[in-house]
């Protein structure tokens, strides 16, 4: 017999579990049944290439055996089993542990209670919620020798030794805590299985004087639609995802004919704690004719639906699917197309029937969904346009594009959006002035992916999406080509001066039709690089990227502009006029979310102005 110490993280988890006052301790049963079901799935998959594994011991089942005299509850499965090494590794360490995030999360869980346990993938240790001693005897498929793992968790160690097991698979014996003896009652076990594990695709029997079957034991997704109740689907989802909340929505489908497959798909309510850290493998569970062949099949989902969880069961794929085949199979592409369609339908239904729940989903995963617009995918623009939500000048909260469309003013020819750091900054942006004056609503986009998404959408319901920084706002419903550029008018000498001073910095200087309160702003020439792209290029340090030149628009009615022209008339070649022009330009750069080329020079000019305004000492 050898004694092993639990990995430090396991000790933490055990500490959390043993002393837990958590009321819903019975979740241990679904965790252990889920492990048993996984073990049976794995065996069935291995038997595809090693049929002899099933030749001698063909039963694939899960058995519960309460023993009132010994005060033990035993769970048996005839699954893949564990070798001696696997017992030590699987039941002594945590697969994704070691990271700082994990430990942090654990600390949070301590505060919140072990509802969070499942999400760590540490389901086995939940046995210690109800037992003060746990024994696991396991005989791995294809082996003759079994081994016993045992621990009472308290001193942070477990033992492993050779043992006997009359069948292939695993037997877990729970020595129940005194307050858990209810778990010896057949009715209690039946109730728990019905509540938590009814969807399990393997038979679960209760062993006693006579054996009693507790579940249907058919794969949930293969059952008729009417049999898949909300409660069943929820439990199935929780089991699959380790989420402790119900999903935001789910969908079930079966296709017949040339390509036959079934699917059960879920959209979570909340972002899993490690979603952005990629520690949890993504993708759908892939079954072929009820045999689980891949736990996480990413090939069935586009990246922008990577939050979707669920199961696909194909009748046509070969059981020995390889990654190469998955990446290059028309069957897989067909399934993926269907999955995308079904998920988008599910989301549209949610948006329509449960707008509150949909907003919750959008806040959690909208940023991911929007990637579907920005990655050159053109196929789902209509659906994604209907699913899009954004803040706007219309009021608090988020609006849909359809709602925006319905509020559009007579003669308004576009859906306008502004992109910037925050809503407050955007609200004050000079670019919005003319639109506000006309009473036009503007979407306020602040998520880095938003502007890509708006560009990707291009149009909604026939209306172009137009950035407020675009040179041609189409305010009068006409396109630039169709109308003459505004005349320089009386401002011509000043504009010429500005053109000269700023010739290295701007493409053009012109009179503005959009400004009411600000003296100047920068706009992007038609076909020019938008600000967000420039920002991105600079952040990424794209070599040799100089940035596209902007058009400087000048507000002819603004007092500053008019006095600048007066100053220029008086002293046409003065340094001061040059400096003020540069200052106005830098100011326009700042309101656009950029920074002056030389912040020191900018600051000095502002200081000079302040000194003049305050009067020299
Ligand atoms: P998870 O199921 O998320 O991997 P668990 O803590 O529930 O985490 O289980 C840890 C590991 O122990 C499993 O991944 C599996 O390899 C192994 N295991 C647990 N129960 C069994 C079982 N009944 N048969 C075979 N292996 C098992
Ligand atoms: Mg588990």
What's the SSE blueprint?
Blueprint: E1 2-5, H1 8-18, H2 27-49, H3 52-56, E2 62-67, E3 72-77, H4 84-90, H5 100-112, E4 131-139, E5 146-151, E6 157-163, E7 169-176, H6 186-196, E8 204-206, E9 212-213, H7 230-241, E10 249-255, E11 261-267, E12 284-288, E13 291-297, E14 309-314, H8 323-327, H9 330-353, H10 355-369, H11 371-374, H12 381-387, E15 389-392, E16 395-400, H13 401-407, E17 415-419, H14 423-427, H15 433-437, E18 442-445, H16 450-457, E19 459-460, E20 463-467, H17 492-501, E21 506-511, E22 520-523, H18 531-539, E23 550-554, H19 559-570, H20 575-591, H21 599-614
Parallel strand pairs: 2-8, 12-14, 17-18, 17-20, 21-23
Antiparallel strand pairs: 1-6, 2-3, 3-7, 4-5, 4-7, 5-6, 8-9, 10-11, 11-14, 12-13, 15-16, 15-18, 19-20, 22-23
Adenosine-5'-diphosphate is lined by residues 31, 35-36, 39, 77, 79-82, 90-91, 121-124, 170.
| Mean pLDDT rating | 89
User: Which structural class should the secondary elements be placed in?
Assistant: alpha+beta
Report how far apart the termini are: 90 Å
In the predicted model, the low-confidence regions spanning at least 5 consecutive residues are: none
Taking the sheet with the most strands, its summary is:
9 strands, mixed
> Helix coverage percent of residues?
25-40%
Strand content: 15-25%
Integer tally of domains: 4
The distinct ligands, each listed once, are: adenosine-5'-diphosphate, magnesium ion
CATH class of the largest domain: Alpha Beta
What is the CATH topology descriptor of the largest domain?
Heat Shock Protein 90
